[in-house]
Structure formats: structure tokens, C-alpha cells
Design brief:
34% of the residues lie in helices and 23% in strands. The protein has 189 residues and is of the alpha/beta class.
């Protein structure tokens, strides 16, 4: 029997690519705000709800949920959405594992290079570099602390955090948006 992976952020490009890469060797379940497929389950972070069936038999969780930081203006409301979609969603997963008394093998969480802050510097950052001191770095710091607490609180044998930069894919996301002005001859190389 295949091990079960629960992936959050089902509609995101990274989740779709991870699903394709893993589905031959694992059973994949997805958390979505608008489930459509038989392996997609409803969750609502604001209402603190996760379909309990989504966690049945789960061995691993890959947490890729997060509202786009470039899709809308950063109003106070949007900043709360960015924070909640990352941090509060991870806390909800942790809470549900706790309520169920369920332990998983692995919790893998996305994070971002925004952890290092948004300032001009000649520094080269690595895993031991301190966080910045702006909105995104604070979001990343809390996001990562929550992710690592799955292991420290005993709900996962191992927790890992992956700091991504801008994900470029020719069919979606940032690159698709950047290609349009370039094709018109007004973009930068």
C-alpha cells in the first residue's frame, strides 16, 4: 500500500507539479478551498475547518499554501490574507493533528527568500543568516517557526522548511506575466 501525502495549496503551480512528480509512488490528497476532484478535500482557514477525511492515513504533509504576494495591492486586509494563508493554515494543520492525536512522518513547508528581508546589500545569505525586519521576513519567520514546531511538539518525526525564490514556469505565475511585455519588445532581458 502506498504512503499518503497531503498537499496544501492544491491550485498552486508548485502543488500541481509536486503532485505530478509524486503520484506514481504515493497516494496524494489535496486540501483546497474549492475541491473538485475525488482526492481534494475542503478546508477553510478562517473558519478553522479541515475535512477530517483529508487526514485519514496521512504519512506526510507538504504545506505549499499561500496567497500570492504579487496578485494584489498590499492593503492591511491583503497582508492579513498573506499571513493567514501561510501561518494560520500551518497552525490549523497542527491543531487538527493534535486533536486527533495523530503523528506523521514528515512535515515539509514552503517558505521564501523573503525571510532575509528586502534591502539592498552585498551580502550572500545562507541558512544561518538572520531574518530581515520587514513584513515578508516576519511572515516567513513565523511560518518557519510553526512548521518546525510539528517536530518539536512531537507531531512529526521530521520537519523541513524550503525557502523558495520566485518560481518561474512558462505556463503560469511570474514568468507568464513577465513574458507579455518582453514579447512586445518593451520588457527587460
Amino acid at each position: 500500500m502506498k504512503e499518503v501525502i497531503l498537499i496544501t495549496g492544491a491550485n498552486g503551480n508548485l502543488a500541481k507539479q509536486a503532485t505530478k512528480a509524486l503520484e506514481d509512488n504515493f497516494q496524494i490528497k489535496l486540501l483546497s478551498r474549492k475541491p473538485k476532484l475525488s482526492n481534494e478535500y475542503l478546508w477553510d482557514i478562517d473558519k478553522q475547518y479541515i475535512d477530517p477525511n483529508s487526514l485519514n492515513d496521512v504519512n506526510h504533509i507538504i504545506h505549499l499554501s499561500g496567497a500570492s504576494i504579487s496578485a494584489k495591492r498590499w492593503t492591511a486586509k491583503r497582508k492579513q490574507e498573506i499571513f493567514s494563508s501561510r501561518v494560520n493554515s500551518a497552525k490549523l494543520l497542527l491543531k487538527q493533528l493534535s486533536v486527533r492525536g495523530q503523528k506523521i512522518s514528515t512535515f515539509i513547508s514552503a517558505s521564501a527568500v523573503g525571510y532575509y528581508g528586502n534591502s539592498l546589500t552585498d551580502s550572500v545569505f545562507d541558512e544561518d543568516s538572520p531574518p530581515g525586519n520587514d513584513f515578508l521576513s516576519n511572515v516567513c519567520l513565523e511560518w518557519e517557526q510553526t512548521a518546525l514546531s510539528f517536530e518539536s511538539l512531537g507531531f512529526a518525526d521530521k520537519s523541513s522548511v524550503l525557502r523558495f525564490g520566485i518560481i518561474l514556469d512558462k505556463t503560469s505565475g511570474a514568468l507568464k506575466s513577465m513574458l507579455f511585455p518582453i514579447k512586445l519588445g518593451i520588457g527587460s532581458p
